[in-house]
Amino acid sequence: xxxxxxxxTPDDWHLHLRDGAMLRAVLPYSAAHFARAIIMPNLVPxxxxxxxxxxxxxxxxxxxxxxxxxxxxxxxxLTEETDxxxxxxxxxxxxxxxxxxYPAGATTNSASGVADFSRVQDVLERMAEIGLPLCxxxxxxxxxxxxxxxxxxxxxxxxxxxxxxxxxxxxxxxHITTSQGVDYVKAHDKDLAxxxxxxxxxxxxxxxxxGGIRPHYYCLPVAKREEHRxxxxxxxxxxxxRFFLGTDSAPHTDPAKLQPCGCAGCFTAPNTMAILxxxxxEDGALEWLESFTSLNGPAFYGLPPNEGTxxxxxxxxxxLMPTHIKTEDGPxxxxxxxxxxxxxxxxxxxx
Length: 351
Ligand code: DOR
Ligand code: ZN
Fold this sequence. Notes:
Layout: E1 3-8, E2 12-15, H1 20-33, E3 36-39, H2 50-63, E4 71-77, H3 84-92, E5 96-101, H4 121-130, E6 134-136, H5 150-165, E7 171-173, H6 179-186, E8 192-196, H7 205-209, H8 226-236, E9 243-245, H9 254-257, H10 272-282, H11 289-301, E10 309-314, E11 324-325, E12 332-333, E13 343-348
Parallel strand pairs: 2-3, 3-4, 4-5, 5-6, 6-7, 7-8, 8-9
Antiparallel strand pairs: 1-10, 10-13, 11-12
Bound molecules: (4S)-2,6-dioxohexahydropyrimidine-4-carboxylic acid (DOR) and zinc ion.
């Protein structure tokens, strides 16, 4: 039997596009299915100032496939030296949609992140005044905190005090991985939301570690126990407007992943929509897929939903999916959900 599903064209509220050859190789996959994406600023060097964001936005625009109207929603990387005036000007001119907080050392290219939060208080206060959201990588970095506890500890020690110190600041908890993350968001009606990745809806920590180590499932925050994956699934498929899609699609070449100290990141841009259709169908929640991929994010960011549509088909015959893409830097493996989604994107329009 064939099932057909048509949704408003989705957006990706957390995406790594990289730069140079990698940008040119991966951007077409996001631009094929998504109208807009929040672009992560963790380049080397990071996108810190408005001038950096203009230059990076222009490189993204010129890497778009011919005819694509894909809109990069730019972010600035918050450092202890960030100037509140520069941030406010970048927001006022429409250049940036959010500011990204990486606790120093939390993940890929986060060395310039924040260690002393008192040094960013003025920037955060200005953001609250002008309604500019803060996207948060929510993990503490202390070596004495177990890596599987770093999100839950961050909520108690860093995030909740920060939100108390800066009332009215709009915060997106990026790529939540725990039931504590889900519960924290649900406990607050205003100014708080969370993105959930495709891969965290599919894998738990056993997928990474049981029966052999699988580097392509290693990302940050690392996948947790099954009970947490189920909490994420329930949140994503519930229709609750505080949860929306941020793929955290984070391409690294195979040689960069398959080494003694491999990079964190799952590359999900090509098959996210197919996997999500499978996941929501499996949970009897296809009616909420559009909220998760296309409505809740724009509502939180105060943007209109896209005018176009995306159509997904589920065919009786499984489609063979590619396992990797080629780039000038080397192959990048596409996230393997461990099942054949059955669904595929048959048509997209961008309004
Ligand atoms: O897995 C991840 N990869 N998590 C992050 O926070 C960063 C990202 C990357 O840039 O590779
Ligand atoms: Zn990310």
